[in-house]
């Protein structure tokens, strides 16, 4: 049962990364935007370590870039570093407390780390902030 849930959560996280590509289109006109795009491409290919390296560089260039913290969190969680993912989403949410996607990534990381209650709370917060995709996760993991 637990293995099945982790597989489903992994698939959902992969889907979430693909959805993040849409957000990046706006960022492509800047060096950090291009680096962020390269991180997303690496993640899409399953090279999560390379993705993290790209997101690290974005954060070095632009420390207030909440999307880079969130996508790095996504990659960290994919590598099993759920605590690191939670720390990154916490930073993203300090920078933008209304960033629903960060709550969704944090919720999924919490869920994968075994904290269903907190994960569901974060997913509900993501949905309340307008991140519509969180409703799917809530229905799948929290109801």
**Which CATH class is shown?**
Mainly Alpha
What is the assigned CATH homologous superfamily? Tetratricopeptide repeat domain
Count the beta strands. Answer: 0
Q: How many helical elements?
A: 8
| Terminal-residue CA separation | 16 Å
Gross morphology is globular
Number of domains: 1
Strand fraction: under 5%
Poorly predicted runs: none
CATH architecture: Alpha Horseshoe
Order of helices and strands: HHHHHHHH
Classify the fold: give the CATH topology: Serine Threonine Protein Phosphatase 5, Tetratricopeptide repeat
Largest sheet: none
- Which whole number gives the mean pLDDT? 87
Radius of gyration: 14 Å
Q: Give the helix level as a range of percent.
A: over 70%
Find the structural class using helix and strand composition.
Answer: mainly alpha
Question: How would you explain this protein's 3D organization?
Answer:
This protein starts with a helix and ends with a helix. The protein is built from eight helices and no strands. The relative contact order is 0.12. It is mainly alpha-helical and 143 residues long. Helix 1 packs antiparallel against helix 2. The protein has one domain (2-142): Serine Threonine Protein Phosphatase 5, Tetratricopeptide repeat (Alpha Horseshoe), CATH 1.25.40.10.
């Amino acid at each position: 049962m637990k293995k099945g849930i982790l597989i489903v959560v992994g698939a959902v996280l992969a889907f979430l990364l693909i959805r993040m590509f849409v957000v990046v289109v706006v960022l492509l006109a800047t060096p950090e935007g291009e680096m962020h795009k390269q991180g997303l491409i690496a993640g899409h290919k399953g090279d999560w370590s390379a993705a993290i390296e790209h997101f690290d560089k974005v954060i070095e260039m632009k420390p207030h870039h909440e999307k880079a913290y969130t996508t790095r969190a996504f990659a960290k969680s994919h590598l099993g570093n759920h605590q690191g993912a939670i720390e990154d989403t916490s930073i993203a949410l300090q920078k933008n407390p209304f960033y629903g996607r960060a709550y969704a990534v944090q919720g999924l990381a919490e869920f994968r780390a075994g904290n269903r209650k907190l994960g569901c709370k974060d997913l509900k917060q993501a949905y309340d902030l307008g991140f519509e995709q969180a409703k799917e996760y809530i229905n799948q993991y929290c109801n």
